[in-house]
Structures are given as C-alpha cells and as structure tokens.
Specification:
mainly alpha, Tetracycline Repressor, domain 2, 15 helices
C-alpha cells in the first residue's frame, strides 16, 4: 500500500470519519439482509439475541469496510468516486484505519459467538477474512473475475443471520446466499460501464478495463439470466410463498429487460446519453435486492395469520 505521505493532511479525524470507514451505505444493505436472515429463520429466539446478532454482523461488515479502505487507500486516492474518503483526504491515517478494523473484527466475532453460536461467529470471521484478504488484497488487483468471486463476501450476511438462529445451514440459507452472489456481478458491472475510467486510472482490472465494455455487456446479460433460477427457486422453500413469487417474477422480468437493453447498446449510443440506461439498471439492481428480501420478510410476517408461505 502507498506510503501515508501520499495522502493529503487535512486535519483531525472526527466521529463521522470513523463512521465513513465502516462504509455505512454498504452496511445498511448488509444489516437489512442479515436481519431478514434472522427473522425468517425457523425457531424461537429471544428478541435481545436477535438484535445483538444483527448488531455484531453489522459491526463485522463495518470492520471489513475499514480494512478494505486501509488496503485500498492508494486506489481510492485516484478514483473520483472514492477520493474524498477519510484516508485519501488525510483525516484518518492508514495505521489508524487498520487498528480500527482489526479491533472491530475481533469484537464482532467474539460477541457474536457469545450471543448466538460458534458456527455463526466462524462464518462472520471467514466473511471478514474473505473480503479483506481474498477479495481486497488478492482478487481485486489480479483478475477481472474479482467481483464474481469476491461477491461471496456480501452474500454471507443473511446466511450468518439464519445460522445465528438455527445453528445450521439449510437450503433456504444457501438460496439467500446465491441470490446475492449471482446478483453482485451484473450490479457492479453496470456501475463499471459508466465508471470505466476510474478503474482504469487506478489500475484495477475490472472486466470493462481488461475486456472492454462490449464483453462486459454480454456478461451482464449472462449473469442476469443465471440469477433468475436462484431467485425463483427461493419462492418454493419455507421462506417463500405466493407473495414472494409474484414480486420475484416481476422484478426478474424488469431486470432481464434492463440487462437486454444494456447488451443491445453500443458505445456510440451509450456515450450519447451519458450511459443513462446503465445508470438506470444499476439503480434498479439495488431495488431488486431490497424488494426480494422485503418479500421474504412479508411472507414471514403474514404466516401467523395464514396469509404467507405455502
């Protein structure tokens, strides 16, 4: 990683800078999917245990973000999207971010083990390691498949939430994992299409940089098609039901339509409208994931009234 002297010295770190290290926008999605994993899992768990499990999964996700920002500070400094993060701006020193991330990682894993069970804590520890070491330190800078494999880190939270309640892994937990895992590549590649220069300037081998936008467009189409069976299959398990299936069919139809529109476009069209379609699909992909997990939650909430589930 680059020497700390490369970073602009611009004042003391504030509370908000340490919150920013946790990547709160990313963490919000992690918290939501982990919460769904906890709430849709079978069995009775004390509300305090459920709340603390979600809290420590979120803390672990934040710790991963801090470790990622520590390692990627040199890349962040040259990318427009990330240049104002606390380390490139000099408000937090790299060593401080590293210590902060490691401390939070230890607290999150130990406390989750005490609050729920060792398997959930082990999965959280593996997730932090996978994101900070396997993805950030290895995959991100070495292969255009970085986001494909690295997407596993963001897919674990609902599985960890499920395991925190049940103590084991089931097909429902695996399908929630696969839903996020298969969603991640088309989501990030849509972003990469209109942020190609950022990744190119930073030397990150995103698919748009190594193989070009045309190949990336085809990959988005392929991965979106591959995502659909996993999304629909979850509807036929104990966490699914008619509400989830109806929502999933609509969302997947719209996502497929967006992926097809991206695939059919050429660069002349895309540049002429400033990648409007790609930006629309990227924004919709966030809604896609949120509504799928919201539908899981709706099914679980309605089951006691005989209205949800099968």
């Amino acid at each position: 990683m680059s020497d700390a002297r490369l970073y602009e010295q611009s004042g003391e770190a504030g509370f908000g800078d340490y919150i920013a290290l946790l990547k709160p926008r990313v963490m919000s999605l992690v918290v939501f999917t982990a919460m769904v994993g906890v709430l849709v899992a079978p069995g009775n768990v004390h509300p305090f245990i459920a709340m603390t499990s979600i809290l420590f999964i979120a803390l672990g996700a934040g710790a991963s973000g801090a470790l990622n920002m520590w390692w990627d500070a040199d890349i962040d400094a040259v990318m427009k999207r990330t240049a104002k993060r606390p380390i490139p701006m000099g408000r937090v020193q790299p060593g401080e971010a590293l210590g902060f991330g490691l401390a939070l990682s230890g607290i999150a894993v130990v406390m989750l083990a005490l609050a729920s069970n060792l398997l959930a804590a082990g999965l959280l520890a593996f997730t932090i390691f996978f994101y900070a070491v396997v993805y950030s330190m290895w995959l991100k800078r070495s292969t255009p498949q970085n986001i494909v494999i690295g997407g596993a880190a963001g897919a674990f939270p609902p599985m960890i939430g499920w395991v925190a309640v049940t103590g084991g892994i089931s097909v429902e937990a695996v399908l929630m994992f696969m839903l996020i895992f298969m969603w991640t590549p088309p989501h990030f590649w849509a972003l990469a299409l209109f942020m190609k220069e950022d990744y190119s300037n930073a030397g990150v081998p995103m698919l748009t940089v190594t193989h070009g936008r045309k190949v990336t467009r085809a990959h988005i189409m392929v991965y979106t098609v591959a995502l659909v069976p996993f999304a629909l299959a979850a509807g036929f398990t104990s966490i699914g039901g008619p509400i989830y299936l109806a929502v999933s069919v609509i969302l997947n139809a719209v996502f497929l339509w967006g992926a097809w529109r991206i695939w059919r476009r050429d660069e002349v069209q895309a540049e002429a409208d400033h990648y409007a379609v790609e930006k629309q699909v990227f924004k919709f992909s966030l809604l896609y994931l949120f509504l799928h997990f919201g539908a899981f939650l709706a099914e679980a909430a309605l089951k006691p009234y005989g209205l949800g589930g099968w």
